[in-house]
Each structure stands twice: as structure tokens, then as C-alpha cells.
Amino acid sequence: MNEQLLQYIWQFQYFNTRSLATTEGIPVQVLNVGMLNRNQGPDFEHARIRIDNTLWAGSVELHLKTSDWNRHLHQYDRNYRKVILHVVYEDDDPAPGSLPVLELKTRVSGSLLSRYAELCNARSFIPCEKLIATVPEITLSVWKSRLVAERLIRKGGIVEDYLEANHRHWEESFWWLLAKNFGLPVNGDAFEAIARSIPLRLLAKHKLQIQQLEALLLGQGGLLNDIFEDPYPLLLQREYRFLQKKYNLQPVAHAVHFLRMRPGSFPTVRLAQLAAVIASATHLFSKIIQEESLEKVREWFKADANDFWHYHYTLTVQGTHRIKSIGASMIDNIVINTIAPLLFAYGNVYGQYTLKEKAIRWLEETKPEKNSITKGFECLGLSNRSAMDSQAFIELKTRYCDERRCLYCAAGNYLLKREK
């Protein structure tokens, strides 16, 4: 037993409520358990409890033991002056106090406690690995929708940080997030730093010159500092030195990495592809807000890097010919990690529910991610049909299962309260 479980038991009344009475034998009737308080003060506020023949309205405080009240010094805290009932798992203080005490130890199901202990102590892929197949599909479906919304809201926190840093400029925020996405996990921070160092208004001045765009991106990433022999890298180097002086640019401090990376994901290739996207489209986020067809949006990102890159993965080594197109999987990644979160955040900020719906709909229309987490859930028999499913699984695993937050999970909740 812990206080989180005790809160859960009280909130959902998962105990024998027949003939409730205080430790002194006074009848108790719970009319409203109150609202869970996650801030300072009593555990539940705005409760309504009938004690004997008197109806009380106020707060309820929960503890594992009655003595915890004094141990936590609540008797000296003004926040606890409106407490009307002290709910404890075990009454270890027989002396009558000023507050009525309700003990739950003999009223809580032993099977609930054992199931909770089993979940908390499980060392499998997820705590309920052996039981999740028994959770009704409708419960999981509704829960996955909630998980995706939670994930998009949480990602919206990153967007809000961007907006605070760039004076509420949504297009600039889209540029930063898009660049971070192109960097993938390894170079995401470096690519974001590069984007922050090159304002959109500066890129707009040079969008008709792909070499200058590449020079800006590669130069700010510190990739044009070598001694080159090939004419094209030398051209980019000259362009960058001119633009660097003209705009007083300073390369970012973040290093870009090539180690243990497939050539197609080398930062040089990704930056060249990013330059191609910039050159081929303008006001992308404004267009995304207006567009209803995800297929049309995907077309805007189907860009090929400049010709030089069809024979190169780096600025110095020539390879076999291969067109460096932005593939379907990368565009899926952009939809999942850039477009949907920003669209959802925009809808949240301006109260446009249709945009939030569109963000979720586009996730449903996007292929699912394939990684160790999604494969784990697939092995348990759960369907992974779209990016909405895969995003829900990632949120569930990282924010609930790994942290053993079974009490706040719809699947965990179902398994804990079931009769068998």
C-alpha cells in the first residue's frame, strides 16, 4: 500500500462502503469524495460527507497511518484547517483526536492489493503484459485517443517555448521544428540551433539560389571549414564566407555527428534536402493550416537534393549515383513529429477544434512507426495500423508503463477493479 493507491481507492470508492463509521463508531456517508488536489494542501477538496446527522463540506486528507497527520505537522498548517475527514489505511493512534478518522484496512479487497503489487513488481515489457489481452477493445481504443491527445499537448509545450523565443511567430516556429526533425534524434539539437541562427526572412532572400541556401545551412553547421578540392564544395565555402560576413553570422556551437549513421541520414545529405524544401515552398505552415488533404501536404516535401548530392554523401568523398530524394518514411516522420504537433498546438491556442481534429486525422492517415516499442505491443496482439496507434503506444510505454503509473492508465484501471 502507498498513498497513490490509497488516493485511487478513495477516489473511485474501491472499498466496502456498507455501514461506514469512524474509528469511534460514528456513522459516515460519503456523498462526494471531492476533487483530487495535485497541489499543496489536502488530498481531496470540495468533498461532501455526512457524519452522524451533520452534513459537512470541505477537504479530505489521506494517510497510510493516523499518526502521519502529526508527523507531517498538518496541525500547524493553515491549508488543512478545512479538513472534515481523515481517511487512513491503518489506524495506529487509538487516542481520539479533533478530526473524525475513517479506517479502510479491513474494507479494501485483498485481490486489488495483490493485483497492484503484481503490476508494480512486474519486470516484463509492460506491467500488464500477461493481462492486457483481457482489456476490452473499446477501452483500449478510447484510451489510445486520449494518449495521442496527451502526447500532442505535451509536444505543444515545445512549441510554446519556441513562440516565446520568437515573438509568437508560427512560421518561424515551424521552421525550427522542421529543421530539428530533419536532424533526427542524433543531430536534432544541432539542426534546431542551425535553424535558430538563420531567420526565415534571411532564407527568403536567397530561396531562389539553392547553393546559397546550402551554404548557409552547411556553413552554420560548421561543415565548410575543411580544405576542399572539388569545385562545388569550394563554391559553397566561398558563398558562405561572403554571406557570413554580410549578415554577421556565427556558426552554432553544436557539433553534427556522422558516427553509426546510415549514409542516407548523414547530416550533409539532410541539410541539402532541407535546403531543397526551402527552395521549393514558401509559407508552409500557413498553407498547412488551410489544406485539408494530407496527400497534397506530402507533395510539398517531395524534394530532391541538388545534383552534386546524387554522387555524394559528404562534401569530400564521391560515391555511386543515387538521387537523394526525401523518401516516404521521412515525410511520415515530418507529419508525425512536426506537422501534427504544431497544427494541434495552433488549434489549442486559438480554440480551433477543427485543426486539432485534422492533426489527429492526419496521424490516422499516416503509416505507423516501427520500433522496439511498437513491435513489443504488436507481439502482445495489439494492432498498430497507423501513426495514431504508434504514437499512443510510445506515450503509453514511456509515460505510464515505464513509470508504473498503472493507477492512471485505463488498462491498469480496468485490470485493478475487475472482479476476477
The proportion of strand residues reads 5-15%
Average of the residue pLDDT scores:
94
Count of folded domains: 3
* Shape verdict: elongated
Which structural class do the helices and strands define? alpha/beta
- Element order: H for helix, E for strand: HEEEEHEEHHHHHHHHHHHHHHH
Low-pLDDT residue intervals, each spanning 5 or more residues? none
Instruction: Report Rg.
Output: 29 Å
Distance between the termini: 20 Å
**DSSP summary: helix tally:** 17
Estimate the helix proportion, in percent. Answer: 40-55%
Organism: Niabella drilacis (strain DSM 25811 / CCM 8410 / CCUG 62505 / LMG 26954 / E90)
Protein name: DUF2851 domain-containing protein
Description of the molecule:
Pfam families: DUF2851. The chain is of the alpha/beta class. It has three domains: 3-108, no CATH class; 109-165 and 367-420, no CATH class; 169-326, no CATH class. It is 49% helix and 9% strand. Strands 1, 2, 3, 4, 5 and 6 form a six-stranded mixed beta sheet that branches. Strand 2 (35-36) and strand 3 (44-51) form a beta hairpin. The longest helix is centred in the middle third of the chain and has 29 residues, at 137-165. The protein is elongated and about 90 Å long.
What secondary-structure arrangement, pairings included, does this model have?
Blueprint: H1 3-11, E1 28-32, E2 35-36, E3 44-51, E4 54-65, H2 68-71, E5 83-90, E6 101-103, H3 110-121, H4 137-165, H5 170-182, H6 184-197, H7 200-205, H8 210-220, H9 231-247, H10 267-280, H11 284-290, H12 294-299, H13 328-349, H14 353-364, H15 372-379, H16 387-401, H17 410-417
Parallel strand pairs: 4-5, 5-6
Antiparallel strand pairs: 1-3, 2-3, 3-4
Helix pairs in contact: 3-17, 4-13, 4-16, 5-6, 5-13, 8-9, 8-10, 13-14
